[in-house]
Amino acid sequence: MLVPMENVEDLLSELHEPILHHIMSFLPSKDAVRTSVLSTKFKYSWQSCPTIDFKLKGYGTDEFLSNVHDFIGRRTLGTAIGKLKLRVPSYSETSNNRLDAVIDYAIQNFVKEVDLDFRNDIPQLYPTMKDLYFSYYPLPSRVLASKSITILKLKGFKMAPRDLILTSSVLRYLSLEHCTGMESLKVFCDQLSLIHVESCVGPKQIELVTPYLETFYFIGEEGSQLELSEDTFSTCKSLKHLNLDRVKITDQWLENLVSEDFAFLENVRLSGCNTLKKLMISHSNLKYFELDQCSEQLEEVEIDARKLDTFACGINYGAVMDKQPICLPIHSPLVKVILLLDTSSTTSNWFSFLRDVLSFLGHCRELKLVCKSEEDLIVPEDMRGSLLSPLHDLRNLKVEINNPISQLPDFVGSLLWLAPHPDTVTIVCDSEEKSLKFKYSLVKNEVKDVFCCHLKPILCWRHNLKELTMENFTCLETRIMHKFFKVQDMRLETIHSTNKSKRKRPKHEAEEFCIY
Question: Which domain of life is it from (predicted)?
């Protein structure tokens, strides 16, 4: 039965305006305006919505700015603004006045969150960095002087003056990306909890007076000249998360920072910090520590952190062929270690180097090795016979390979030489995770027909493996591995095979049957 429109109850109009504003806050401003057709109350609520969110898409800059100005002109006078978000990817200097007007309007109405992205999407138009510098939108000084902004995100701005000083009693979040013009950044903000500086051209010095800073995130440009002094973080006793990329720091500087003086520090990630040599880290609350692309001069990393959950380190071999193995004594009972292996050579020198590095890590909860190819981990047979395995105590080994595996039995055999008595071996390739789970008999078998560990102090998996479970291998791989283990271990009683993979298999695989 059709009900006349005049008798239909307008339930949307019964909603309180703060609820309507909350709904509109999830929409771009142009869509918020379109809600005016939904109900009588929606017709006017968008005019006082505290969120202004526009993204240039589908029309030119002039038309875009005209739409923004029209939107602002129709807003209710004196309405406070919670958030201003603008994305203008094709900025030109002729747009300055109109952009300034939008920003001024927001500041005059006590805006709290400012998110401005003026990065140019067509940098090829600017043949030199100098030309690109002058194409950036000059940041109005009144933005940094605002007394209402609590969250400030800027992308694609020309900062002025070059010695940038930021003081605010309310700012809690500062993010600068792809900005230029800064030679130094000095921040004096009592409430600031996060600083994010990424791909900004120029900063050589950073000074912080931020007692409540919890997160500092810096990613430098190629050839970054930023050098942090001993006093950079001296006031930041609340620091929890530190990420430094392409920054000049010394061993002593890092050891002083990752110390009990900064008791709340939990996560440290360093990348491209190639001045580090020998580190001795001691911290009672440290949970995550990563060294990525820092191994150019790195000789030793010793960490004493009982709560350390994850240690990750990039291992580069090839640039210096006579490079000595990095010593990695990590003193933590539950640590997961991740090694990112990068080698241009798979000679015996590489495998000797790798073995010496791994020899420090047998005690960890899990060891994960990430490499390009299976060849990086297939240790030659003659080396397996003459050298002791480096990971006798390791229980869980995980390997992630970027390229397809073509020598599965030899690859698995090499992994079981590296870690000769595991509980699990997991192989990740092409987003597929395959695993081997081992169960052993309580009494080790030392009968004479197993010669693999002759005269070696510790026996391998072959001597007491009782049960094996293979997960997510294809039927062909399962048959190959079944044959491999039966030949290698005549005492193996049971082999289970399960496939929980959600990957859609090719037709020729689907027709295979797992018959042993």
Answer: Eukaryota
Taking alpha carbons only, the member of 361, 498, 511 closest to residue 436 is: 498
Q: Are 158 and 180 in contact (CB under 8 A)?
A: yes
Residue 396's pLDDT is 97
Which pLDDT score, from 0 to 100, does residue 500 have? Answer: 58
Tokens of 395: 């229980």
Q: Which of 427, 414, 436, 323 is nearest to 368 (CA)?
A: 427
Q: Strand 310-317 to strand 432-440: parallel, antiparallel, or no bridges (unpaired)?
A: unpaired
For the chain of 516 residues, list the mean pLDDT of each consecutive stretch of 10.
Answer: 50 55 55 50 54 69 75 71 83 73 88 89 49 67 92 92 91 95 93 96 91 96 82 95 95 95 97 94 97 92 96 83 84 95 89 94 96 94 89 95 92 95 94 92 60 71 87 92 82 81 49 42
| DSSP code at position 227 | B
Strand partners, 467: 439, 494
Helix (H) or strand (E) holding 24: helix 17-24
Q: How many residues are present in the chain?
A: 516
Phi and psi at 489, nearest 5°, equal: -135, 105
Residue 282 contacts residue 257 (beta carbons within 8 Å): no
Give the rounded distance of the alpha carbon of 420 from its chain centre.
32
Displacement of CA 209 from its chain's centroid (Å)? 27
Answer yes or no: pTM beyond 0.70: yes
**What pLDDT was estimated at residue 328?**
95
> Within a 10 A sphere around the Cβ of 314, how many other Cβ atoms?
19
Helix/strand/coil for 79: coil
Q: Phi and psi of 259, rounded to 5°? A: -145, 175
SS3 content of the chain, % helix, strand, coil (to 5): 25, 30, 45
- Whole-angstrom distance, CA of residue 167 vs CA of residue 30: 34
- Give strand pairing partners of 269: 243, 290
**Region class of 221: left (phi > 0), else alpha (psi between -120 and 50), else beta:** beta
Query: Which of 389, 399, 439, 442 is CA-nearest to residue 419?
Result: 389
> Count of H helices and E strands in the chain?
13, 26
Q: Using CA atoms, how far apart are residues 31 and 25, in angstroms rounded to an integer? A: 10
